[in-house]
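REQUEST FORM: STRUCTURE PREDICTION
Request ID: SP-0412
Submitted by: Lab K.M.
Chain count: 1
Length (residues): 290
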Amino acid sequence: MAEIRRALLFVNSHKAEAPSLVEELCAELGRLGIETSSYADGGSPETPLDLAFCLGGDGTVLFAARTIAPLGAPIFPINIGTLGFIAVVHPLEWREVFEGWRRGRIGISRRLMLDITVDRRGANVITTHCLNDAVISASGIAKIICLDVSMGGGAAAGFAGETMDLGRYRSDGLIVATPTGSTAYSVAAGGPILDPEIDAFIINPICPFTLSNRPVVVPARETIIAEVEAEQRSGVLLTVDGQQSFPLEPGDRVFIRKAPYEAKIIASGRQGFYRALRTKLNWSGGSPNA
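STATUS: Completed
RESULT:
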């Protein structure tokens, strides 16, 4: 049985169900001798930490993953939003699922995360990480931006090996998505859906000026390098998980690689993922005798 001594709560306070569910959760965890506290935005979680509960939707899980994945603690997502691809535990069944996980009957889905750094004139000016995607896009009215994109090693990335030129991208932007993020912005931009536990990235141009620029799936061992060209008609913005944004400058080089840690998500395995796909995308098949 998993030993849990200390749990952290990430709560979407805008949800009407949140206060009563927090009260119920804290009462049950207290009965089990588990210490609970709520995360204060901007603070550093106290360690050691055994578990994080997310009360909200997929956005709450993305926020929690960026906060605690480096600590190695698993995430227990309780969905009080719309049907999600990551947060799949219903509020009425959380006790049953939690007990199933504690007793080893329910597993953990290990999700690849992205590590992102920005090199500006030889200095590292941005370091961040995310679970869904990193997006480089225009920040002004003129949408088209120009990026030189390559894949492989590079001294600034701390990697050795061959660098492969993928070309000059003139587009509304570029998405680099994880398998978890393949069902988010990337799929809306025409990208493929990946099984959530595949070890790969999607490189997906947004509305490319050249129609032959298509999404590419590459191994997660690669480093993606996107350089912002000198002359742009618009400002350029780096956005991670749709929740954090950073302005970029001409000449900036964005390095995107696999993070050295994973997001560990309880009860969000492949069955739940494909069930969400069938429901959200309205997949259906004919009867066996049709």
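NOTES: Residues 39 and 45 are 7 Å apart (CA to CA).
Reviewed by: T.R.
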